[in-house]
Amino acid sequence: MDDKEAMEILLSLGAVLKGHFLLSSGKHSDTYIQCAKLFQYPKYSELFSKKLADEFAIDKIDVVIGPALGGVVLAYEMAKQLNVRGIFAERVQGQMQLRRGFEINRGEKVLIVEDVITTGGSTKEVMQVVKKLGGEIIGIGSVVDRSNDQVDFGVKFKSLLKINAVTYEPPNCPLCKKGIPVVKPGSRGNRS
Fold first, then answer.
1. Is 121 assigned to a binding site?
2. What is the model's pTM?
3. How far apart are alpha carbons 141 and 157 in whole angstroms?
4. Tally of domains in the chain
């Protein structure tokens, strides 16, 4: 599967939305990637996860972790492909943390995965959790990188697909200025 095929699958599933969106970063955009549309199909979850896992196949990994909600299915599928544990972090009172009996042991080699990366905010929060617990971050993986090369995690970062989507700070958003209603479709939003 190359970039063109990956994009065709996302488009065919209605996972690439156009409009006026409020991203979890607080920024606005005319493009939204809803990977939940992809992950509802096990065959596509497996296909995309296998392709991404191949990018980390030579790395020694003990556990794969993703932030809830976008990284939950991907972390599970990546762990399955790499034959390691798969867990997720979630926000409790605004702070990312491990719950449900999940743990990272000191010295474990950790791969962090996320469905879509724009600013890298959620991923950086998970990185803090991993470091605090003594895990060693081996890399970051995502299905879609829409950061426009503006994010540096300081470790290996691989994505299946780069989408150059414009983001705006709310006060400078031309879509707001045109009076186009903003929609928040993501995991912290109220519509899907």
1. yes
2. 0.90
3. 6
4. 1
